[in-house]
Amino acid sequence: MNYNFYDRAASKSDEELYYCIDNREKYLPETVEAAVSELQKRGAEFSEEELRVITEDMQARREMAEHGTGIFGIFNTNWDNNQVYDPDAPGMFSKRAIFAFSVLCSVLFGAILLAINVNKTQNRDKALWVVIYGIGFIFLQAIISGGYNPIFTILTSIAGAYIMDNFFWNRYIGKPTLYRARPIWIPLLIGLALAAIGTILVSKGLLPVIPPK
């Protein structure tokens, strides 16, 4: 991120800054720290105890993000450890969304969403590699299965999503990175359209389906 948090804090009202501090679990630590600094510049006074609590809360927030769960925590509340509501946080598709689209649509679909995330970081030049991984993965699935095998596809897609989470996300975005979850409506509509096309292809015999044994 290229945000100057202190400049952004200077443009906010006292009420906005106090709201940020009072609801600090929703904001980036940098945003909260800049809010405290700006209020102090404006003459606001914080007790040593208040400053200590804020500092400890922000340290705890950073540590919680550092220990966020991976894709197999999909049914665990810790899945969202890295999500905040701070408008200054980078907007990214969540790990939950990437996992779901990878399994239900394809690993390539999930890889494209992840590449969009990577493009918002200093590693934006690596986004193409994420897409190449997704393309290679679905081709490998097709070669191994010889057609569309639902059970095989789901199981291997889970593995593909796991690789993206542990290698590409952690390496190019960073496990402790805090972000604001982007809406999934557009990917969802695209996914439904692709599913409809796939259903039509199967019904017309243009997409071979291997029944599970």
Please outline what is shown here.
This protein is mostly helical. Helices cover 62% and strands 2% of the residues.
Number of strands: 2
The computed structural class is: mainly alpha
Q: Count structural domains.
A: 2
Mean pLDDT: 85
**Sequence of secondary-structure elements:** HHHHEHHHHEH
Shape summary: elongated
Strand order of the largest sheet: 1-2
What gap, in angstroms, lies between the N and C termini? 49 Å
Largest sheet: 2 strands, parallel
Backbone CA Rg = 21 Å
Identify low-pLDDT runs. Answer: 71-77
Give helix % range: 55-70%
- The fraction of residues assigned to DSSP E strands is under 5%
Count of individual helical segments: 9
Description of the molecule:
This protein has a two-stranded parallel ribbon. Helix content is 62%, strand content 2%. The protein is elongated, with a radius of gyration of 21 Å. The protein folds into 2 domains: 62 residues; 128 residues, no CATH class. About 3% of the residues have low confidence. The chain contains 9 helices and 2 strands. α5 runs antiparallel to α8, α6 packs antiparallel against α7 and α7 packs antiparallel against α8. The chain is mainly α.
List the helices and strands and how they pair.
Elements: H1 5-10, H2 14-22, H3 29-41, H4 48-66, E1 91-92, H5 95-104, H6 107-118, H7 127-145, H8 150-174, E2 180-181, H9 185-203
Parallel strand pairs: 1-2
Helix pairs in contact: 2-3, 5-6, 5-8, 6-7, 6-8, 7-8
